Amino acid sequence: MKIAVVAPSCTLTPAAAQAVQEIAASRGDAELVIHPQCFASSGHFAGPDVQRLAALREVMSDDSVDAIWFARGGYGSNRIAEAAARDLPDAARSKRFLGYSDGGFLLAAFDRAGLGVAHGPMVQDILRSGGRAAIDRALDWLVRSDPASLEPGLKPDGRAMAFNLTVLSSLVGTAIEPDFTDAELLVEDVAEHEYRIDRSLFHVTGSASVRRCAAIRMGRMSEIPENDPIFGSDAETIVREWCARSGIAFGGFADIGHDAANRVVPFRRATA
Amino acid sequence: MKIAVVAPSCTLTPAAAQAVQEIAASRGDAELVIHPQCFASSGHFAGPDVQRLAALREVMSDDSVDAIWFARGGYGSNRIAEAAARDLPDAARSKRFLGYSDGGFLLAAFDRAGLGVAHGPMVQDILRSGGRAAIDRALDWLVRSDPASLEPGLKPDGRAMAFNLTVLSSLVGTAIEPDFTDAELLVEDVAEHEYRIDRSLFHVTGSASVRRCAAIRMGRMSEIPENDPIFGSDAETIVREWCARSGIAFGGFADIGHDAANRVVPFRRATA
């Protein structure tokens, strides 16, 4: 099992790379190849667009690579997502792709293109409190499709998708928007004010294409900054309200979020 | 000339209301009626949705009112915009509407519904440094369509629209999205990181409907928080890049922004 790590968004911390390499070595069930591009830096990004895109396309085209694991989020994968999903090499079709947060732009573009993507922990998550569990969960899924890694509410036969809410709001209506039809749509967010969560849900649930989803399930909305004045509602109430307004079913909670407990959500259960 | 002030987003500061009342009285060219709803408060908002909507619909239906001026922005007009633009009273069709920032949700919904809207200063702007000029500019436009109030680059015969970029990104694809076809689209933003400006422009210029606009002109992007790490680009470069990528013409700069210099942009020049 060969897993390639690339950084389509921000630069991977060397300490995180080393720690996860050691975990993979100690487990002995996967060869982890961390692409040197992960440590490139150009302003906000892990190298310029052209370098991040080239590294991603390189591992997508590599027949020896079984899975592609995004190093970390941050911001920037949207800048290369449309190009990354164009003229796909055959080698990309047999791989699985794993990431979340800003990586959601690639999950969307690749799902739209028919590739096997999943929302779940990334390499940089080793630096979180309890991060070892997140890394093992990700590797357990990448290496052997361990059902224990999966978000526990996923239906055996249904389609599911998971996104950071702000990322989802930023891709709706673009060329990388995936097909939400009949999918359970799991959303999480981090470090956004309640008024921004409310605004993003207004936008997302106001999209005709998102309204084709089967239901919205609410992941963790964490590190919400204090609102001045007090917003007057909480995240759960906000999610329920926009579901009710838009006619989308509220499907309950989801065990995903910007934390070490983040479970894996494969977009196409056939690849899980 | 009777101008009604309502607050579809956040609560108006009493000091701002009093100062602008005094300016209107000293000018003597307009009767300014500040609706009591402007001072209501419910969490983040100037009263609950139902109260903000009722006040707005009340003045829209009032034959004695010539213009409706939004008190201030903040957040919340999106929550009532679709309802506010539904089953329009005839009385609303002869009025002009003025506001910006979060008020952009109403500008969009009302423009879509055929009403005469303009992007420009609001009552609360009196509290800005040099705010008196903003208030006079707004009143000069509301009362006598003073051409000196207008954004100087507006083409005599062309359609123009102006929005806060983040608000625009949050309404694209929803039921209140206006028709951008052949319009010059002026955008400004405030207090958003460069990565967020970049992400909003990715989203907005990635919309097929926005791509029907004639050009994008760049208003002021102010109070940009420091990016960590340094983003590596500036707002102008970002706007130019997304215009180039999307095939939308970059039309230069626009004299609009979250400041006292903010000029008026009527969406339909026929009403200017």
Key words describing this protein structure:
alpha/beta, 8 helices, 32% helix, homodimer, 272 residues, 4-stranded parallel beta sheet, 6-stranded mixed beta sheet
What does the model show?
2 copies of one chain form a homodimer. Chain A is an alpha/beta fold. Helices cover 32% and strands 18% of the residues of chain A. The first copy, chain A, has 8 helices and 10 strands. Chain A has helices at residues 14-27, 49-60, 78-84, 104-112, 131-144, 165-171, 194-205, 235-246, and strands at residues 2-6, 31-34, 67-70, 96-99, 116-119, 159-164, 183-190, 215-222, 250-253, 265-266. In chain A, the strands form 2 sheets. A 6-stranded mixed β-sheet of chain A has the order 2-1-3-4-5-10. Chain A has a 4-stranded parallel β-sheet with strand order 6-7-8-9. In chain A, helix 6 (165-171) links the parallel strand 6 and strand 7. The longest helix of chain A has 14 residues, at 14-27. At the A-B interface, helix 6 and helix 7 of A face helix 6 and helix 7 of B.
What helical percentage do the residues of chain A reach?
25-40%
Molecular shape of chain A: globular
Multimerization state: homodimer
Strand content of chain A: 15-25%
The separation of the N and C termini of chain A measures: 16 Å
Counted beta strands of chain A: 10
Mean pLDDT of chain A: 96
The major sheet of chain A is characterized as: 6 strands, mixed
State the secondary-structure class of chain A.
alpha/beta
Low-confidence stretches of chain A: none
Radius of gyration of chain A, taken over Cα atoms and rounded to an integer in Å: 18 Å
Largest interface comes to:
A-B, 34 and 34 residues
Output the strand order for the largest sheet of chain A: 2-1-3-4-5-10
How many helices of chain A in DSSP terms?
8
Output the helix-strand order of chain A.
EHEHEHEHEHEHEHEHEE
